[in-house]
Amino acid sequence: MHELSIVLGIVDIAQSEFERSGATSIDSIELEIGEMSGVEPFAIEFAWPEATRNTVLENTEKIIEYIRGKAECLECKEQFELENLYDECPACKSYFKNIIKGKELRVKALTVS
Amino acid sequence: MCDTCGCGSTNKIIIQKPGQLQQNHEHEHDHTHALGHSHEHPHDHHHSHTDHSNKLNIETNILNQNDLLAERNRGFFLGRNIYAVNLVSSPGSGKTSLLEKTLKDLKNEIEFNIIEGDQQTFNDANRIDALGIPVVQINTGTGCHLDSDMVHKAMQQLDPPANSILMIENVGNLVCPSLFDLGENERIVIISVTEGDDKPIKYPDMFHGSQVCIINKIDLLPYVNFSVEKAKDYARKVNPDLIFFEVSATKGDGLNDWYEYLRSKMT
């Protein structure tokens, strides 16, 4: 259940930004989570209410953008969608690849008022 | 899984046998508030965005805090010329046995320090301590992984000397520790032949993030249905750069190559 740690990390980031902003509430928080990040959407949803209780995010709307995995083949430079870390290049069948998208775990923005 | 009540979760869990149609598992799930308190939620959860709202584009990595402290650990290792490894595996792969055997055989030529991570007990630290090797145990309680702050704090107690090897034995778990950089030089994943040979593609994140894969308990190969070549093929699909060692920590097979590898890190 590392997603609990992930949500607690999100709370910490929101808390310090919130204090700096001098606002009175956080209306919404935008998150970017890559599908290759090792974080399960259902576990985030599950951990969220408990981990944000009595914090600045307790009543905040959460907007999550899940980012699909994308890789570039190191052999032939083909770019392709990645569903699993062990997917091969569809063009040359190589397993050598750079993951260029899908590893994100980011707090993108806060809307405060 | 939920840290609070231990239940399985709500939407998107799939329960199915191979070949069956997918069934989504859903259930109502309400947590009571911790410490027995409860309160009404009079707030409007869908706030209207007034003229006063202000969007802050912060673009911050969620693991930022862990990664920063991991880099600090890495700098410490570099400054003292310490080769730090993060040993990861599922429970029961023989991490501690391999560690014990390695320490017994090499302690007279290489200086070792050990950090032991487990949810509970000092058993592993006691095993290492019996060999006269400096060790700090981290008990994570309900936590399923070590993080860079725990390692940082353990290191303050250990104070590992220059030109040594620091072995960090992570909590036995092939999932959660994969996300948490401890500042190690290399991550070493251990699997044993009593597990399935398709483990690398069942838990690809861990194999993707490791540099070395040790296949342990090879003395049991005649008795189990495990293909070393198949396991390696799967692992290479996830991570073509992986370096492999095939060993038996209890019988001693293949350990010389592993020891040579460790020696090469000390030159």
Structural summary, described in words:
The complex is a heterodimer of chains A (113) and B (267). Chain A has 2 helices and 6 strands; from the N terminus they run αβαβββββ. Chain A is of the alpha+beta class and 113 residues long. Chain A has a domain at 2-68 and 101-112: hypothetical protein PF0899 fold (2-Layer Sandwich). In chain A, strand 1, helix 2 and strand 2 form a beta-alpha-beta unit. In chain A, helix 1 packs across helix 2 (41-52). The longest helix of chain A has 20 residues, at 2-21. Chain A starts with a helix and ends with a strand. With 267 residues, chain B is of the alpha/beta class. Chain B has a single domain, classed as P-loop containing nucleotide triphosphate hydrolases (Rossmann fold), CATH 3.40.50. Chain B contains 8 helices and 10 strands. In chain B, helix 1 (64-79) packs parallel to helix 4 (148-158). At the A-B interface, helix 1, strand 1, helix 2 and strand 6 of A face strand 3, helix 1, helix 6 and helix 7 of B. Strand 6 of chain A pairs antiparallel with strand 3 of chain B, so a sheet runs across the interface.
Instruction: Classify the helix fraction of chain B into a percent range.
Output: 25-40%
Describe the oligomeric state of these chains in a short phrase: heterodimer
Q: Helix and strand succession of chain B?
A: EEEHEHEHEHEEHHEHEH
User: Residue ranges of chain B: pLDDT <50 for 5 or more in a row?
Assistant: 1-38, 44-49
The first-level CATH class name of chain B: Alpha Beta
- N-to-C terminal Cα separation of chain A, in Å? 32 Å
Structural class of chain A: alpha+beta
The end-to-end distance of chain B, rounded to whole angstroms, is 44 Å
At CATH level 2, the architecture of chain B is 3-Layer(aba) Sandwich
CATH topology (fold) name of the domain at 2-68 and 101-112 in chain A: hypothetical protein PF0899 fold
SSE string of chain A, helices as H and strands as E: HEHEEEEE
- Which range does the strand content of chain A fall in? 25-35%
The strands making up the biggest β-sheet of chain B line up spatially as: 6-5-7-4-8-9-10
Looking at CATH, which topology of chain B would you report?
Rossmann fold
Give the radius of gyration of chain A. Answer: 17 Å
**Could you tell me the mean pLDDT of chain B?**
85
Overall mean pLDDT of chain A stands at: 94
CATH superfamily caption of chain B: P-loop containing nucleotide triphosphate hydrolases
Largest pleated sheet of chain B: 7 strands, parallel
